[in-house]
Amino acid sequence: MTSPGSHWWPAYIGIGSNLDSPAQHVERAFKSLSAVEGCYLAARSDLYRSAPLGPADQPDFINAVAAILTTLDSYSLLEKLQEIEDADGRIRRAERWGPRTLDLDLLMYGELIMDESRLTLPHPGITARNFVLLPFAEIAPDVVIPGLESVAVLASRVDPSQPMIEKLVSQQLPCQ
């Protein structure tokens, strides 16, 4: 863990939503991230529509990745991400990979590698998820994920069709 305020750390956040106008939830998440004290939104990917990873009887997800610089330590950042989810109406259910208004995953925090009950970094599912790696590669292809390889190399290895995914342009944004 780092000392808050002592250094600006790069962090990457996966953003997803599949309920109640998901594109709007993702856009609000970008704004909320930029409003967190001690955080600077450095880059954001385009939006991607993807089929759900979990139960198939739920709407498609809208996904994106944000790059931030932060003076918060990793646990404080995680708490802020959960506060943003809660403020956006996130209801935490026991069902894994179920529908949600907003999901913010801390994908990477500097070069930190950790595996603790509250937080695992880098995010354990990062290497197999096209809906994370494709938007991540759009904004930070040369970033090396600690203990792994560059985002571009990892993105080149995922099946871009599993789950189904498509990059959205502004006129394609769903109005659900």
3D architecture notes:
The protein is globular. Strands 1, 2, 3, 4, 5 and 8 form a six-stranded antiparallel β-sheet that branches. The mean pLDDT is 89. It has helices at 22-35, 74-87, 130-139, 151-157; strands at 9-17, 39-44, 48-50, 61-70, 103-109, 114-115, 120-121, 165-167. The protein has a single domain, classed as Alpha-Beta Plaits, CATH 3.30.70.560. Helix content is 26%, strand content 24%. By secondary structure, it is of the alpha+beta class. Helix 3 runs antiparallel to helix 4 (151-157).
Summary tags:
single chain; 176 residues; alpha+beta; Alpha-Beta Plaits; 6-stranded antiparallel β-sheet; two-stranded antiparallel sheet; 26% helix; 24% strand; globular
State the helical fraction. 25-40%
Specify the biggest β-sheet: 6 strands, antiparallel
CATH class assignment: Alpha Beta
In the CATH hierarchy, the third-tier topology is known as: Alpha-Beta Plaits
Regarding quaternary structure, what we see is single chain
**Average residue pLDDT:** 89
Going by CATH, the architecture would be 2-Layer Sandwich
Helix count, per DSSP? 4
Radius of gyration: 15 Å
Tell me the distance between the termini.
Answer: 40 Å
Topology (SSEs and partners):
Elements: E1 9-17, H1 22-35, E2 39-44, E3 48-50, E4 61-70, H2 74-87, E5 103-109, E6 114-115, E7 120-121, H3 130-139, H4 151-157, E8 165-167
Antiparallel strand pairs: 1-4, 1-5, 2-4, 3-4, 3-8, 6-7
